Amino acid sequence: MDEPDLSVDLGGLRMKNPVTVASGTFGFGREYAEWIDLTKLGAVTCKGVRLDPCPGNPQPRVTEVRGGVLNAIGLQGPGVEGLAREGLPFLHALGVPAICNVWGRSVGEYAEVARRLSAEPGCSAIELNVSCPNVHEGGAAFGTDPRTLAAVVRAARAATRMPLFVKLAPNVPDVVPFARAAESEGADALSISNTIPAMLIDVERRRPFLANVQGGLSGPALHPVAVRLVWQAASAVRIPILGMGGIVEPADAIEFLCAGATAVAVGTANFVDPATPLRVIDGIRDYMARHNLARVSDIAIPR
């Protein structure tokens, strides 16, 4: 059998393999360049930005917990101009597709950031973060009502012709209405899923550990939840899905592909072993060869 074809089309974004990284776990790529060969990734998903620089939440804002990591970084970032000046030129020079994660405090801000990034040569796709659980404005406020979500996607769609992804929240009664709302307003793909709202209490001080009180739980504990969400969404929409949540080993990524994802993103594991995305790429290739699968889409379980 010929070498398996790992290339995928994620809503108009051509990737040479189905593996990227999750926003907020990889900086803007440059931070990991001395540890791994970025050119081997299907794409790099950048840390989220809004119009202006954001200082994030006060410390402490991250801690390990059983089964993963709890964070309340608060979407700290340099703003859209900082990304355009510091992050995108580096990735563009390497020839690595960049998925730009954006958020806003209003529908109009989402649209304006999408419009500005569309003019940057290093931007390959835009991912709307409507599901961050640890910011007091924006974030999840736009991702827990299908009508509000639809308004954000509609405005961003009018502002850009770039491939447009929507990152959905896991903490909703049913992901299907949100997936369909994003699809109906012109989203090219869905990113599933973000972190789950959670908290940790310091029992000696009898106070919440995080200064923000609550944060987002990521890591292996999130994985089965995210696989279920991908399965449900893939059964309800025609647009492709970027599956993420608790990928540590290649088998975790392959689960998402079995559930109907077109591509996957490695997140928390990047903090433990920066080589995880490359191991996942190799593992998917080996799996396809062992099962005589020609294309990544052949991994999906028939419905």
Written overview of the protein:
This protein has 303 residues and is α/β, with parallel strands linked by helices. The protein has one domain (8-57, 75-196, 218-299): Alpha-Beta Barrel (TIM Barrel), CATH 3.20.20.70. The protein is 30% helix and 20% strand. It has helices at residues 79-94, 107-118, 146-159, 176-184, 223-234, 250-259, 269-272, 276-290, and strands at 8-10, 13-15, 19-21, 44-45, 62-65, 68-71, 98-102, 123-129, 164-167, 189-192, 196-199, 201-202, 207-208, 214-218, 241-244, 263-266. The strands form four sheets. The chain has an eight-stranded parallel beta sheet. It has a four-stranded antiparallel beta sheet with strand order 5-6-14-11, with no helix packed on it. β1 (8-10) and β2 (13-15) form a beta hairpin. α2 (107-118) packs parallel to α3 (146-159). It starts with 7 loop residues before the first strand and ends in a 13-residue tail after the last helix.
**Secondary-structure element pattern, one letter each:** EEEEEEHEHEHEHEEEEEHEHEHH
Main sheet: strands, sense, barrel? 8 strands, parallel
What is the CATH third-level topology name?
Answer: TIM Barrel
**How many individual β-strands?**
16
Cα-based radius of gyration, to the nearest Å: 18 Å
What characteristic shape results from the CA principal axes? globular
Q: Which percent range describes the beta-strand content?
A: 15-25%
Query: What number of domains?
Result: 1
